Every structure is written in C-alpha cells, then in structure tokens.
Amino acid sequence: MLKISFFFWQLCLLQESPDRIPAKPFVLATLLLIYLVIALTTVSIGRPALDPTGVVGTVFVGLIFPALVTWTLLTFKQVTDRFVATYSALLGTNSIILLILLPVSLVLLNTENENLNLLADSVSWVCLGWWLAIAGYIYHKATNISLIQGSAIAFITELLGVIISVSLFPTN
What we know:
mainly alpha
C-alpha cells in the first residue's frame, strides 16, 4: 500500500505518468472504495450543514460527473481504452488532495483567528490550483492535449460539479 501511495504522490508532483497505473477493474474498484471513504469523511466534516443524503449525493456527483467528462473526452480523442487508468489516476490523486485539505477544513470550521483562517483559505486555493495542474497533467498524458487544455477541462468539470452539487443538495 505504501508503494501505491508513493506512486500517487509522485503523480501529484507530476513526476509519474498515469499510464503506469494498471488498467484493471480491480485497481479502479479499490481506488473507488478508498476515494469514497476519504470523500465521505471530507464532505461530512467540511460541509457540516449537509444532511447525510446531501453528503452522499455530493460525493456521488463528484464521482460520476468527472467520470462522464473523462469518458466523453477519451471518446472524443478515440482512446477509451485508457479510461480505467485515467480515472484511477484522477481518483488516487484526488484522494491525496482531499487528505491534505481535511485539516485545512477543520481549521476553517473551528477557529476564529483571522490570520489562521486566511492561511487555511490560502492553502485551499493553492490546493485547488495544484489539483487543476494534476488533473490537467493526467488529461494531457491520457489524451495528448496540452496541459492548459487539460487544466481548463478540469476547472470546468470542478466548477460544474460544484454547481450541480449545490443545486441538488443545498445546505439547510
């Protein structure tokens, strides 16, 4: 497990290639399970006003919508055989980013210190930029588009995913 975690960390640092992930359904299923646990925990802590249905719904929107965008992009580029590896790379790296953001969310929710809140908020924005670079890199490697195009697709996917989640599962 440590070797796999190190691989995804290297992918987060843009030092690995997503095509090195075995394109096996078992790998994808394992990463889905890991991502679900991390995302459910992160969303339930980061958005405490959501009821359990909203938490689960938000996580599933964050899981299904990027999968559909990724499948559509790979279909357009005629490389659907890369879906399992590409989506596995997105799930594994997103899990790491979510783990990094978990203490940041706790700080934002539990402190009144303006300086600490500003720092945590800044770290959140840096992580968003980092995530866009990672996802853009993965799309770049998987579909032979530019890194900027891949990052733009990741940004639009994130933005639309948030809009869909907030629209379907508003806070109380």
